[in-house]
Amino acid sequence: MAELKSFEVKAYPEMWKSLGMNVERFEKMRCVLGDVYQKTYLLQDNRPKGMDYFDNLIAEIHGGRIAEILEAKKKGAPVVGTFCVFVPEELIVAAGGICLGLCGGSPGSIPDAEKTLPRNICPMVKSAYGFKVGKICPYFQSVDFVYGETTCDAKKKTWELLDREVPTYVMEIPQMKRERDRVMWLEEVKDFKKKMEDVTKKPITIEALQRATKVMNAKRKTLQRLTALRSHTPAPISGKDGLLIEQIAFYDDPVRFTEKLNALCDELDARVKKGEGVSKPNAPRILVSGTPMALPNWKLHNIIENSGAVVVNEESCIGTRYFKDLMSETDGNMDSMLANLTDRYMKIDCSCFTPNNERIDQVIKEYKDSKAQGVIHYCLQFCHTYNIEAIRIKEACEKNNIPFLAIESDYSAEDVGQIQTRVEAFLEQVRG
Length: 432
Ligand code: BJ8
Hints:
The protein is of the alpha/beta class and 432 residues long. It is built from 19 helices and 8 strands.
């Protein structure tokens, strides 16, 4: 095990105060995050040097990046908070704005939410709502507005309450993929473009949308490159680090992120050529599929990798569902570009769709591409669509002789021991 390096998430109390935060509460959360990060990440052996950049982003998560965002805001950049990969980031970037995928992966904000929300709903929704009502997230305090969506019941009803705290607009997401659903969704995409234009008081030009498309495609291609590198044995990077990078993709500057991730991929490429990795060559290779793991939810990956396996892919929105599809860069007029944008986003295979056969096929495809040896399906408690869809994923795995395990959990530490036991038994089955 690597020697424990000192690590601290930096404090910016003056900046937090200026954002109207509950500084005292937040200070405690900052210390907890630093401690958890240090133990989860910095004890890993043989981490690539390129992870220094991402470590530093976590150290500066509540300061450096926030300062950049506030600076851009001063210059007129709209800052939009989102909770779903369906909200077209290209239009935010084309409007000169900043898209922030807001966090909802911490147990620390749940008690704040449970003062209002029912306890028996998804922890991600509660965690996110708690961050806002508890005034304990500098990102939430920095956004001009939130763009929510109607993917699931917990989210769409929470937006009504969230709107009392921060302007919250809602995009209707179809639940089927028929032509009439696509037509409806194209209208929603147009409304979103208009919203961004109303905010900036400037039209989004074709050139700006083309530039934004290139930025987003470049970022997605680099994330695809990372995924491809993880398919090698031994894995050149841990699953925990892979997940961290996918989480950071939602709040870092997209151009800088792409450049730094490409540099890391060059390093991983060299490792692959030398046959070097972070895990033993015989470590079981696991694909994790299911609901997103928002920052700082590292619970399952930590359990799997502490049990001697390596996670080689996340079939999730904080994972391949975010970056597997590119948008066509073919020049055209605004109408055809918006149609292309709609088509790109309609490929997202979220379990809110019915039927959702594409996802079942995608899990098997990613299992093969990543050279995994087992699938662990991860479902956040009370997420009915993913929970029920796990039945079809299990059937597909059985048909293809793929070892399968379903885990349903929340953010508490209470079930860690029980999950650990189940994961260890599953890894024995994978080892054969
Ligand atoms: S496109 S997966 S990011 S909705 S919040 S549905 S876990 S009960 S996150 Fe998602 Fe968009 Fe789909 Fe992806 Fe379930 Fe919880 Fe709802 Fe959730």
